Amino acid sequence: MGMLLGTHCLSLPLFIILFISLSRPCFCSYGEGPFHFDLGRARVHGRPTTTMYRRLYSGISNKRNGLDLMSENMFEFKYEDEIRSRLNNAPAPTGSTVVSVDDFGAKANGSDDSKAFKEAWEFACNSSQGAVMVVPRNKIYHLKPVDFSGPCNSPLILKVFGTIKATVHRSDYRRPRWLYFDNVQNLRVEGGGIINGNGRTCLAVKHQLIGSLGAENSSAYVSNVIVNRATLSGTTNGVRIKTWQGGSGYAKNIKFQNIMVHNVSNPIIIDQYYCDHHKSTCPKQVSAVQVSNVVYKNIRGTSASNVALKFNCSQMYPCREIFLQNVAITSSQEDKEEHIAEASCSNIRLSYRGNVSPPC
């Protein structure tokens, strides 16, 4: 379950708390995507406030594909404002320990630095007063797949100033992921550095900014996530929410904003019918993880495919309260008249504000 950025390139200012907030933009190269946050067991605590958005479209429906542009009442997007403010304003947790990967033996000389990153994470995660784990600037660190597991004892900030680059050896990828964050709460990722997933080499690893929810008929609960100021270049997926058929639970109160996509195959996608066809056939199931209260704001760039927006939502549990504001994605193909970016939308209740292109 989770969020995966990776083997292509991700431009980082992520801030997860489950706020994935990016304070300065990071820049990625190409690849598919292995930076994975397991949000299924995460929790965020604090006093929520409510931001109100007004639905601008009224009474438009398309029963054939399940599209419903909703009436002119108020649309709520709720997030944990208190924690967001605290994490944004504080450079590090009070009394925090600063941990550099170099202190644990990272060389940034082309050799494998995975062990040093893992040990630095474990040290930071075990700190009782909060910690800042630092990837120094002007260096390139090569990593094999690494799991960064929690729970941690206190809030943690990962500052990526330099470059993290995926191993090019396909045999290193026993599972389709690279950087995997599991069972972590109150994590903030920032710094303006580069996460390079080497996607053209490691074709088995895919990007997924929230995914694998409800796998094997499990329950998953993800809420209060912000992805802000990221750049994705050459990735298979951009801002993605992926759930399996047969699961239960929810993914709600999620905000993707101020994001640039360059030559991304699926720039904006919700898929509630995910199935790993390589392992087995997937018969249609009734239950699904409910996706609701999702905001896409100020997302621009180019699509490598003809479908720039894809909302493939469940018939029994349609996507609800999906809000798009100032979205502009065009085709990256040279012949833009023949390759026009389109939207594919089914079983979704959504609303627009500002310019949205392509529209459902």
TrEMBL record:
InterPro entries: Glyco_hydro_28, Pectin_lyas_fold, Pectin_lyase_fold/virulence
Cleaved signal peptide residues: 1-28
Subcellular location: Secreted, Cell wall
Keyword Membrane: no
Keywords: Cell wall, Cell wall biogenesis/degradation, Glycosidase, Hydrolase, Secreted, Signal
Gene3D superfamilies: Single-stranded right-handed beta-helix, Pectin lyase-like (2.160.20.10)
Domain of life: Eukaryota
Name of the molecule in the record: Polygalacturonase
Taxonomic source organism: Hibiscus sabdariffa (roselle)
